[in-house]
Amino acid sequence: MSEPVGDLPETLTTARLRLPLISAEDAAGMLAGKRRLSWHRDYPTPRDQDAVAMVKADDPAASWGPRHLVRTGDGTTIGSVGFYGAPGPADDDVLEAEVGFGLVADARGFGAASEALVVVLAETDRLGVRVRAGVRPENSAALKVLARCGFTQLRGAGEDGTLVMVRPLA
């Protein structure tokens, strides 16, 4: 059985993005329909709200939760990226976590999702965690992002038709 894994940094950064963890306060506000001035007018989306529903105050696995995706140039929050909980052992006893990501429509097509996912995956590589993602087969943009980021294995499909893609350990 695999050893427990460590925490991810509170904020991850790239040349163009900042990825802070979504706080319990922000999550509660997002679920209540409240918005911050720095958020894009279309953020959060219903998918973002679904992701933050699991954010709880004082959660020991909080670093494995969802993160805002913030453009550093103008400080606008344009989406989210993160995990659906801490890694757990897969059928082969390798630690594995599921990642999700999404952007508001205006922010798509500029490489932000790939850039955010690359920095998140660098951390999972450092910790020896394999990553999987669920994606609808008709979501060609998300499939391209996953392919660019090394998700090369198709594990199968869920009952709802969602494909389960896996990125092997680096």
Secondary-structure element string: EEHHEEEEHEHEE
Distance between the termini: 19 Å
What is the mean pLDDT?
93
Low-confidence runs:
none
What's the alpha carbon Rg, rounded to whole Å?
15 Å
Shape: globular
Q: Give the class from helix and strand content and strand pairing.
A: alpha+beta
Q: Please describe the biggest sheet, giving its number of strands, its sense, and whether it closes into a barrel.
A: 9 strands, mixed
Can you characterise this structure?
This protein is an alpha+beta fold. The chain is built from four helices and nine strands; from the N terminus they run ββααββββαβαββ. It has helices spanning 24-31, 46-52, 112-127, 140-148; strands at residues 11-13, 17-20, 66-71, 77-83, 88-89, 95-103, 130-135, 153-157, 163-167. Strands 1, 2, 3, 4, 5, 6, 7, 8 and 9 form a nine-stranded mixed β-sheet that branches. Strand 1 (11-13) and strand 2 form a beta hairpin. Helix 1 crosses helix 2. The longest helix is centred in the last third of the chain and has 16 residues, at 112-127. It is globular. The two termini are 19 Å apart.
Strand and helix map with partners:
Layout: E1 11-13, E2 17-20, H1 24-31, H2 46-52, E3 66-71, E4 77-83, E5 88-89, E6 95-103, H3 112-127, E7 130-135, H4 140-148, E8 153-157, E9 163-167
